[in-house]
Please model this.
Amino acid sequence: MSVTAARGPVAALVERVRRGDRGALARAISAIENETPEADDLVAALSGSGEPGASEPGAHRLAVTGPPGAGKSTLVGQLISTFLDTGRRVGVLLVDPSSPVTGGALLADRIRLQRRGGAELFVRSVASRGHAGGITAATPTLVRLLEAWGADIVVIETVGAGQGDVEACRVADHTIVLCPPGLGDDLQAMKAGLMELADVFVVNKADRPGADQTAASLGRSGRGGRGAHASRPIVRTVATTGDGVGELVDTLDNLLAEQGRRAGSTPPTGAHTVVAPRPATLPSVFDLTGRTAIVTGATAGLGRRFAEVLHAAGANVVLAGRRADRLEDLHRTLSRSVAVPCDITGSEDRARLVVTAIREFGALDVLVNNAGVSGSAVPSAEHPWDRWQQTFDVNISGLFGLIQLAVPHMLERGRGSIVNIASVFGLVANAPVHDAAYAATKGAVVNLTRALGVEWATRGVRVNAIAPGWFPSEMTADMVDDEASQRYVRRYCPMERMGRENELDGAILFLASDASSYCTGQTISVDGGWTAR
Amino acid sequence: MTAPERIRVLLTKSFIDSHDRAIKTIALALRDGGMEVVLVDYETPDDVVGIAVDEDVHVIGISFMSGGQVATTKAVAAALEGAGRSDLPVVVGGTIRPFDVEELEQAGVRAIFRGGERLDKIVECFRELARLSPVESLSGAVGAE
Model:
């Protein structure tokens, strides 16, 4: 979908926001939060398309985060007062968690702000609405709206789940992490994640015992923040009295000055790129949260990577493969996973795999048929018969057997995506390398994908395939460092190189998710152009 | 008119009134009813209206446990009118004397909870008022200019 210049009432609304109309701002924020039909137009109007020079100067964006009870809201209240007293217009987003059960939320941060209103202050309480990462999906756009309203400073107070609030940092120019005394030792301060992202540490409740130790620990927390500075400012505050808040504001102003801009000037592109129109909705079609995916051949190479990518997109993953120890290793790194050691050439193993997936996670949404073997790279007249048979058993019979078991469940639910891993050598001949069994089975996968895709096209189950070119895997391990093999790749591959480990991520995510909802029976070649000529 | 997808409610009491048990009980009930509840203490009636507009809530609930219910509620209603938002429903609860009811109703209060009501009925009342709350669409908001 293309973003067009906003017209009519939406453009008028944004114009009112730019003129400082709080009611219009409030309504526009609701529209973004509720993803109303006008939201897209709103984003377009905000980004100024069709209106030269209409884009907003950026505010100084501050994220304030830290564990619950650290005093975030009280500190934010003090910051607001100081900013207002120095003549700045302030926009504030106070994020609190939504109940995952009812969707309700208690938005009580505002109660701790000393300033309840005023023409130069706009405060909005925001429920996280199920979005992980400490800020809501809409936050970047809400920041843009506050900037359109004329905010010189935008303060985002995040949920406060601590190390999970990383996303706030991406929206902000500077991240303030509150660390009250007594919460942990050096190791806590050295942990990666939020602590690493802090541009400024605030030891709040600095009048309590242990503040010196906390400050000292933070001083040893290593590099971090924007620019990966070895030493980051550590400011001590007592938010309830306001002690240290002036120093904190000075520190923040200095950080901004070091970046060569003043509050209210246009922020560096880095900060603005994350506030592109509707950042939340674009990736949402790739979201696999709550879906369950089986990945066969997950013990190594491409399969392992597929499992990791699907998991990272939110899916529960069922890891299938013959080598139990390797599955177990992978299982330990993926929080929502189950390992099922099995051999897909056996019908009992296949049944156990599908049953386990449905039993463990309640449903099966995605089946990635990745397990495969190569035949024998010999002249075809000499291809060993047992190897031929074995290649068919794994690459096509095992694959089809698994589909047969999985598809009744998918058809019943009217939903499912089957992704077969074929090969460019299911599409073209692999001269000068010969492997008749591999070529035959992968060709079979390509046309089986078409047949099944068409058969279930009206019933919500999509069947597609990926045809990878040469990628590093166990199957190709001896090629990677072999000069003759690399010469062969350079000669036949337009990109003159093998694929990289991450270069199938997009294809698998596309086919597994709703992003490909109108695709079925297709084989996507990811091959550096191998099959294009 | 259908209920908004996510009902937002402002619950507020005077900053000087330390009786917060009732307002917290209601806040939790509304939260558990799936609503987003902005909880804040006000200093002046104008605060209530300013916050309600900024937070774009569907319903305002004011708790009174130590007097001032009639004068404050009238002032809030006047401030709402001044802000062009008389459409925003106001409910009050707390220690409301029987003879306050008529004056509160005359001030435009949509519901009065004097204690003893069932929580689920209160939640239902907020939901019903939110359902009747106007302008869910931006066009409506702009058209009302």
Summary: Chain A has 20 helices and 15 strands. The first helix of chain A runs from residue 8 to 18. The first strand of chain A starts at residue 60 and ends at 65. Chain A has three domains: 1-54, 56-282, 285-526.
